[in-house]
## 1
Amino acid sequence: MSSKGISAYKVRGIMRKAASYRMDIGKIFDENIYSIIRNICSSSQMPDEYLITMLLPAIGHFVNGSQMRTNTGTPTNISFFTTIIGYPSVNKSSATDAVLKACLVIEKNIGVKPEESRVNCSATVESLLSELKNTSPKLIQIWDEAVTLLQSFGLYKQGGAAYDRSIMCTLYNSSSVVKRQTKSGNIVVENPILNIAAAAHPADIFSSLCNESDDDGLMARFLFSAPEPCIPLSGEITNLNIDNPSLAHLLFVIYCFNSTEHNDTRRATVGDGDDDHIIYTYSEDAQMIRAAYGIDQGLGSILGKAKVQVSRLAGALHATTLASAVFDQLIDHNSLPGYGDTTPQVFEMLKRVVKDFKQTYKWTVVSEDTAKAAVLLMNYYVTQKKTYTNRK
């Protein structure tokens, strides 16, 4: 990925304009989730948009293959490719670290060995596909420097191999089988689900979006955020509230809801039947909500994915509302875990509460309010992409 072809002056102009559009998290998340996000962001001095954009792939990873049925009736994976954008030293690493640590805490508590971690760092498509086949078909990549990943795309391999970018596009889609064929060997991955959370410098992303090919559409699959850096006054810097739950608690509750072990909810069978997963659907009122995006020829690739992405966002936001409902129950019983409470006993308690919740409530239906919040969040990401490509 090269910054060639876009001037530093233009990059600064795009960054200023992109930063003028803010994400209204108070209208997207309820009080419990808002409190978790603000607690981390205010104490780490990072923009809310950074943490939320990095958090989406983590939610996509821990929904464990669950799918969202779109308004057209087609199921789609709740998975994301996202990138936060900023100059050096604007605290992008705080967002990547927060999400990475939460993922590793959960893996430890569900018994995933370090050498079998689902947090993947493959720098080539061949390595990634091998890990998807041999380690797990559900992986998340968390990149502190997206250029490490992006520079490997578009490199045509000799020996009859397909383009790397095409493979990545297919991995984003809800494909039942992904194949890679070369003269040296073939690899077949069934029901792969890949989530990517990355941090990047501005010029690399903007130049790529400006040159995006409608025949490719890889960058159209990414959600981007380039917010204004958080530079608070000394009196505005807060200490971490240790009485609040952490991202690990939030993501673990989401994982428990979407675990198919002893699950009596409605499932959908995929492929040969070895992998079943939960299907979320819109309520009748939510089905009436439509997100329409004006698309000209130059933005066809970039915005064409928005109508499916908004359903993925609805699934992710629904997962957070379920977690929030569990937190409400814990608050009522004065048993809400604090930020550093990561003992096995705490996670067992969360698992029990989720199990009881699933047996008591109808929880696979996405409400109208959640659907509206998903449209609002999608509008933010669409506005970001339009800004990067200098479109109205």
Note: The domain at 8-388 is CATH 3.40.50 (Rossmann fold).
## 2
Amino acid sequence: MAPQRRHTAIAAAVVGVLGAGIVTAMVLAGAPEPERAPPLPDVRPVSVSSAAQGSGAQGSASATPTSLVVSVVGTVAEPGLITVEPGARVADAIELAGGASRDSDLHTVNLARKVSDGEQIYVGVTPPPGVSEAATGGDGPAPSTSDASKVDLNAADHAMLQTLPGVGEVTASRILEWRETHGRFTSVEQLREIDGIGEKRFARLREQVSVG
């Protein structure tokens, strides 16, 4: 091949390669870019605020009180406010107040009654006017009954006398001894002559007994 033809062929090859490259670049430049997925939003874990948690805990706690506060006054060692658990009895409150004194008349106090929050328990003292003993730890005055349902002091035996409020085995025996010594009861007020029946106990007995 002549030198001139060789140069011509090489030049044509170079032009062809350059042309192909230009066409390829133009094709690539004109092609649309592939779509990209939009970025995902930040996802944060949802947590209950401390205030909400506190209110929830407070709601559950208020449904079931954990303690009761009562006031114990009267003839106890340490009168004042006493904190007890729900379901506590009057006896529990008195014990936490140091216990009742030896001369306290606990026959007028219902020791087995469950206490309620905010109440006042009177031990060995008379509640102020307008405050019932039943609402403050006592049994309260016995309700009035008809003569037919009252216990006859002159006919009742030892067991029948013990059904009276505040009358136990010892007091019932003393009533029988008084009857044997003095004969028949002529008035209910004669119960005051029996040892162990004071003013408060007599006030609860007088509407429950008769003299036949």
Note: Confidence is low (pLDDT under 50) at residues 43-57, 138-145.
## 3
Amino acid sequence: MTTLLRPVPAPNEADLVRLWPLSRLRPAGERVVALLLAVDGRIALDYPLGTRNQRLLAVHQELVRRPVEAHALCPGCGTDNEFTLPVREATELPPAEADAVARVVVAGVELAFRLPVLADLITVADRAPADGLHDLACCTCLDTPVPRLGADDLGRLADAWSALDPAGSLRVVLSCAECGRAITADADPADFVTRDFDVLVDGLMHEIDVIAGSYGWSEETILALPGARRRRYVRIIAERSSPVRQQAGMR
């Protein structure tokens, strides 16, 4: 059996500035899919959710190079708890098989469902969770006709999909820092990766603006510099432009 995960080079900082969707009005899931399509091509539409998650986390580790910090509200006291996504564990989970099929008995009949892929998830992105799950069931069912699935049927199907695609659902169990209550958090890496990519791109564009404004270099030339050199140039320009430095030069 073949898997859908394949080795693809991670984008570099120049790629991210060029390809990252800048509009923060777009949902995080939509923005990361746009990035994967730009980097990996249309094969990204065939990624199941776990492959999307593992790919995003691998790109994050390559570019951001720090842990992915996430948050979960305590349902008891409302405290906002910060925790670190288990990135290494998630990226080491086995990828889904390309021909994986979930089998669920509905009204006494066993039905087969293929794993949803990004192309399917895009079509239900604006639906309410229950409606979206039912639509996914209908479009991935390999048997006809597709009966109406109840909430219990959909729950069992979701569990079957999770078993076939372990990285598709990143569940973290932690204790509330305030009241000690156990919290089970289902974390979507897209939310936190999007936040970190926004911060990274903002920083890179600031460096481009400062250096280009001082030396007239192109964006391409500036991004080709190692990060440490870019940041040093920014410090030199800031020091040269500081009022204290200017006053000292006038004496």
Note: Strands lie at 69-73, 80-84, 101-106, 109-114, 170-175, 182-187.
